[in-house]
Amino acid sequence: MNRAQRFRHISALIALTALLCIPIADLAMVQLSPWQILQRIIDGALRPDFSATEQLWQAIGHTIAFALQGIGLAAITGFSAALFYRHRSVRLIAAALRSVHELFWALLFLQVFGLSSLTAVLALWIPYSGIFTKVFGEILEEIDPAPMHALPHTRSTDAGGSFSQRLYAQLPQAWPHIVSYGRYRFECGMRSSIVLGFVGLPTLGFHLESAFRQGNYSEAAALLYLFYGLIATMRWWLRSALIPLYLLIAFIALPPVASVDWALVWEFLSYDLVPAPLRHDPLSWALVSERLWPWLQMLWAEMILPGTIDTLVLSQLSLLLTALLALLWFPLRNKVLLNRPGRAVGNLWLVISRSTPEFVLAFVGLLLLGPSLLPAVLALGLHNGAIIAHLCGGYSNELKLRLDDVPQPLGRISFYCYQLLPRVYPQFITWLLYRWEIIQRETAILGVLGITTLGFYVDSAFEELRFDRALVLIIAAALLNLLVDAVARALRHRLKPPAQLAGRDA
Length: 506
Known about the structure:
This protein is mainly alpha-helical. It folds into 2 domains: 48-261, MetI-like fold, CATH 1.10.3720; 293-506, MetI-like fold, CATH 1.10.3720. It has 21 helices and no strands. The protein has helices at 3-21, 34-46, 56-82, 88-98, 102-113, 117-142, 146-150, 163-169, 171-196, 204-213, 217-232, 234-237, 243-253, 262-272, 285-329, 340-355, 358-369, 373-397, 412-445, 454-463, 467-495. The chain is globular. The two termini are 27 Å apart.
C-alpha cells in the first residue's frame, strides 16, 4: 500500500467512525427560544460593558500570573525530563501526567489547598510538564545528529551523550523549535487559566461564568474582548527578553502559596481517596473480592461505561467537524486565494475561534441549544478547526508554487481542489491526528457543564464529596486518553509524514 492510499484509508476511517456514532449521539436541540437568547448575546457583543466587572484588572493579573508561573515551571521541568526522554520510565510518567486534564488536577488540589494560587499553579504545572517532556524530548531526538557525532570523546554506547555534549551540540539546533512551541503553549496556558475560573479560582473565567449565568452578556463580551486583545498582542508584549522579568513579578506579586492544614491533607489522602469498602477494615483478598470488586462493577456499569461511550462519541464527531472546518477555513490565510484585506478578516475570525476556550464555547452553546452533545461537538469543532486552519494556512503560504499555479479569479476553486489541497493534505492529516488527543482530553472536562462525558461523573462525585469515586473516574478518563494517544501515534507512524517537527505546533 503506497502512502497516498494510506492517507485515503485513514481519512475514510475518521469519517466512517464519526458517521457510525451519529445514530447513538444525543444531538437534539431542546432549547425552546434560542433566537431570543442569541439576540441578547449579539446585543451584548455590540455593547460591551468594561466597567461592570469588579476587580477586573486583578482578574486579568491572576490569569496572566497563573499562566506564567504554571507554564514557566512546566517548561523548565519538561526540558529537564526531556534530556532523559529515551528512558521508558520518563515517557510513561510524562504520558500519565498529561493524560489528566488541568481542570481535574484543580478539582483534586482544591480539596487540599483550597482556592489558592498554589492550586492554580499546580493544576497547570503538572499536566503541562508532561506535555513539554514529550514535545521537547521528540525535538531533541529528531534534530540532526551530525554535530553530536563530530564532538570528541562521545561514547558510542551512550546514545544520548554527556550532558555538556548534548547542551552544545543539540540545544542550538533545537532552541528555535523550543521557543516557538513554548510561546504557543503559553497561549494554551492562558486559555487553561481562564477555564480554572469555572471552578472558583479568581481568573477571568470566574467572572465570565458569573456574567453568562446571570445573563449579563455585555459584561461577558467585554471580558472576552479583553482576552482576545491579550492573545492578539502577545507577539509584542511577550518578548523573550522580558519573560524572566514577568516571571519574577508574577512570583513576587502572587506567590504560589496556600494555608495548609496537614491533618486534613493526611485525612484526604489516607481516608477520603481510599475506596469506601476498604476504609474501616484491613486490606485482604477476601475484602477485595467481597466488597471492592462489586463496588468497582457498580462504578463501571453506572458511570464509567456510559461516560466512556459518550466521551468517545463526542470525540469522534468533534474530530470530523474539526477536519471539515479546517479544510474550509485554511484558505482564509492563503496569500494566493485572498488579498490582504480578505486575509485580515480571515485571520481575525481564526484568532477569535481558536482563542476562545472550548469550555466557554460549549457554555454559550448550552444556553442556545440546551443540554445535549450538540453544543460540545460545535465547541470542540470550532476551536480545533480554527487551530488547524491557522496552521494549514501558514503552511500553504510556504509552498513554492509555479507561475501557472496562480489562479485567475474564476479558477480559485479549481486551484484549491487540484493544486493547493493535495499539497497541504498530508500535513493536515498529521496535525489532525495530533489534535485528536487534545480533543479527547477536552471532551471529558466538558462534563463539568452537564454534558454526560466521564467528566460529568467526575464533577458529580466531587459535588457529593465522594472523592474515592472521583479518583477512579479520573483514572478511567486518563486511561482512555492514553489509548486514544496511542492509536493516533500509531496512525501517524503509519503515515510517516515528511515534516514531523512542524506537527508539534498543533
